[in-house]
Design goal:
Blueprint (H helix, E strand, L loop, with lengths): L6 H7 L4 H16 L4 H5 L4 H10 L6 E7 L5 E7 L5 E8 L5 E4 L3 E2 L17 E2 L2 H16 L7 E4 L9 H12 L11 E5 L3 H10 L4 E5 L5 H7 L8 H10 L8 E7 L7 H10 L5 E7 L14 H13 L4 E3 L16 H13 L5
Parallel strand pairs: 4-7, 7-8, 8-9, 9-10, 10-11, 11-12
Antiparallel strand pairs: 1-2, 2-3, 3-4, 5-6
Helix pairs in contact: 5-6, 7-9, 10-11
This protein binds S-adenosylmethionine and iron/sulfur cluster.
The site of iron/sulfur cluster has 11 residues, from loops.
């Protein structure tokens, strides 16, 4: 049975029936581009075609468990439950201009175990399937349809390391950018990684216009690997060489994400190291204010003065610098925070009683 996003397989199956191929195309437009509910998208199809889809497609592999709307700004956090009871987060970000970005998850938990990240502290890592990754976009667009909006930009900045789940992430990106499915241009997507060199290059080759972000956070090897245990196996030299091989241009700079941590990453000397690291790389630096998380009491976010000073040093070296404005502070914006404990509990139950899961 083909997945709903496997266009080649569906077309092959109905290759002698052009009318069905045509009505399937209409259905996909209504469902994926217009954000209609599955049953509504089926309503204009011939009954026999609608019955085939009802019988063979699982439209929503995720169940929306909770929706939290920020009272401060245009953020909505969606908490989804997978079939085996684990939770993931997706965030809708509405900007003042009316544009909407969606922050999606690619894994449950994350093996990189970054000290500052609630997802990394979750103690469980499981890949999301391509259908689960895509369902976050499908369900967000259904919510946004009620507001006459559609997701415009999609960022893989939710839970998980996308390049630890490359097969499913490649499939999901191919579906999102396929004119026959979601029809987003590659430029509307951004994949953020902690830095998995081979996978970054492979992705760049397949999707040369999808934006890439590297979560660097420090250009000092000792500090970086202290914050990101996975960095012990990836040297800064290797990362630098990887960045220099990406297909960058005026329209596609690599985004360097840099977490501002007091006395660890935010000193003027740290800015100088960052500038040296980025020499000859077409990069845009995004400074990230730290959202404190449980169990990381030794980490403190930088003051605004330190952040501004750092930004000025990097700007003077010729790099565009932005400071990330964190939306949804009142709905626990730091990804994974809300569900960290719940997932740990479920994972513990699974381990102690595997027969029931
Ligand atoms: C959750 S990660 C997911 C994508 C990928 N694994 C990565 O690290 O780039 C997305 C971004 O959130 C940042 N982040 C994680 N925990 C944070 C926190 N407590 N405060 C601020 N940013 C955080 C990460 O450093 C990363 O730049
Ligand atoms: S910051 Fe990214 S790589 Fe690090 S633990 Fe969190 S999700 Fe994983």
């Amino acid at each position: 049975m083909p997945y709903w996003y496997d266009i080649t397989a569906w077309n092959e199956r109905f290759r002698n029936d052009s009318q069905t191929v045509h009505s399937l195309r209409k259905f996909r437009t209504r469902w994926l581009k217009q954000g209609r509910a599955f049953e509504d998208a089926l309503s204009e199809l011939a009954p026999n075609v609608a019955d085939i889809l009802r019988a063979e497609i699982t439209p929503h592999p995720l169940t929306l468990a909770e929706r939290l709307d920020s009272e401060l700004d245009g953020a909505t956090k969606l908490l989804f439950r997978t079939a085996d009871g684990l939770m993931i987060e997706t965030v809708i970000l509405r900007t003042g201009t009316g544009r909407v970005s969606l922050c999606i998850s690619s894994q449950i938990g994350c093996a990189a175990a970054c000290r500052f990240c609630a997802t990394g502290q979750m103690g469980i890592a499981r890949n999301l399937s391509a259908a689960q990754i895509l369902d976050q976009v499908v369900q967000a667009n259904q919510i946004l349809r009620e507001e006459d909006r559609r997701v415009r930009n999609i960022v893989f900045m939710g839970m998980g390391e996308p390049f630890h789940n490359p097969t499913n992430v490649h499939q999901a990106v191919a579906a999102l950018t396929s004119p026959l499915l979601f029809d987003y241009s590659q430029q509307r997507l951004l994949v953020s990684t902690v830095g998995i060199p081979d996978e970054m290059l492979r992705f760049d080759e397949h999707f040369p216009k999808v934006n890439l972000a590297l979560s660097l956070h420090s250009a000092d090897q000792a500090v970086r690997q202290d914050l990101i245990p996975l960095a012990k196996s990836v040297s800064l030299d290797r990362l630098q060489a990887t960045l220099s091989q990406l297909q960058l241009s005026d329209k596609r700079q690599v985004m360097i994400e840099y977490l501002m941590l007091e006395d660890q990453t935010d000193r003027p000397g740290d800015a100088e190291k960052l500038i040296r690291f980025l020499e000859n790389i077409n990069a845009h630096v995004n400074l990230i204010p730290y959202n404190s998380i449980d169990g990381a009491d030794h980490l403190r976010g930088s003051s605004q003065a330190a952040r501004d000073h750092f930004a000025n040093i990097v700007r003077q070296a010729g790099f565009p610098v932005t400071i990330r404005y964190s939306l949804g502070a009142d709905i626990a914006a730091a990804c994974g925070q809300l569900i960290q404990r719940e997932n740990r509990e479920i994972a513990k139950q699974m381990r102690s009683n595997p027969a029931t899961t």
